[in-house]
Amino acid sequence: MDRDSIYDFGLADVLLLDRMNELAEPDVLYPFALDELLCKMTGQGGPSICHIWRHPRGFVMGLRDSRLPGAAEAERLLKSEGWSTAVRNSGGAAVPLDLGIINISLILPKSKAGSIHFHGDFERMYALIRHALKETGCRVDKGEIQGAYCPGDFDLSINGYKFCGIAQRRLAHAYIVQAFVVAEGEGQERASLVRSFYDKAADGKGANNYPLVRDESTASLEQLTELGRGAGQAFADAVKRIIRSQQTEAGLREAEARLVMPASEQILAMAEVLRSRYAIQGA
After folding, report:
1. Model pTM greater than 0.90?
2. Per-residue pLDDT tens over the stretch 219-245
3. Which terminus of the chain is less hemmed in, N or C, by CB atoms within 10 Å?
4. Out of 39, 50, 138, 150, which one is annotated catalytic?
5. Does residue 116 surpass a pLDDT of 50?
C-alpha cells in the first residue's frame, strides 16, 4: 500500500464544510456543538463531512483537566483575559485556539460491519494531514512528543516539534476525529499559555494528574516549513484540494441532498447542553 495514498483510509465521498472565515460567533463551544449535531445526522444517514474551522480566542480543556482542584479559578482568569473557555466532549487535554490554529473535524459513519479500532480512525486524519503537507518536503511523524500540550500517541510532529494533536468523539452510529493544527505564529507561546493554565489549575496536586508542558516542545507550520506567514491558508487549501479531488459530480449532488445544516439556534442550544453536561466542578 502506498504510504501517501489517502484513498486507503476511507475519505472518499466526504462533503467539504469550509468555515475558516466564519468568526462572528464568540462561543468556542459553537463549532463543537455543530460537530455534535452533524455527527448525529451522519449517523442517521447524512453525509460524511470534513469541517474546517477556526476560532479567534478560545481555550478548550479536556475532561481530566476540568477535575483539577484549581480548574475553576484558572478558567475565571482566562475569561478575565478575554478567552472563551469550554470543556470538550472529545478526548485529549487543554488546547488554546486562535486564528493561527486550523481545526479539522472528520465526521464519518461507523462501519455497518462493526466499528474498526479507533487507531484506524486516527490514521485517517494522520494520512490526510501528511498528504496535505507532502509538497513541503517535510516528514510528518506520529508519536507522543514529551513536554507537548495535549499529549498522545498521535501527536504529529516535524523534526521533533509537535504541530498537531488529534482527539475523537464517538456516538452510536457515527464518530468525529478532530485535529488542531498549529499553523501560524509561535508554538512556544501557546505551550507557555497551557503550562500557565496547569500551574494554576493543578493547585499543588501531583504532576501525574496533568501534562508537564515545556515551551520548546511545540512549533507552528510557519516555523517548521517554508510555507511562511500564510501557512494556515496554504495548509487549509491543501486539505480542501484533497477532499475535492475525491468528489464526483454525482456523489457531491447526492451528499448535498442528504445534508441538513442545523440552524444557528439549534447549534447554540446544543452548546448550552454541552456546557452544562461538562461543566467544571465548583465553577
Report:
1. yes
2. 999 999 999 999 999 999 999 999 998
3. N
4. 150
5. yes
Residue 150 a catalytic site member: yes
User: In the predicted model, what is the mean pLDDT of residues 184-212?
Assistant: 90
Angle separating helix axes 264-277 and 29-43, nearest 10 degrees: 100
Model confidence at 1, in pLDDT bands (50, 70, 90)? very low
Architecture of the domain delimited by 11-262: 2-Layer Sandwich (3.30)
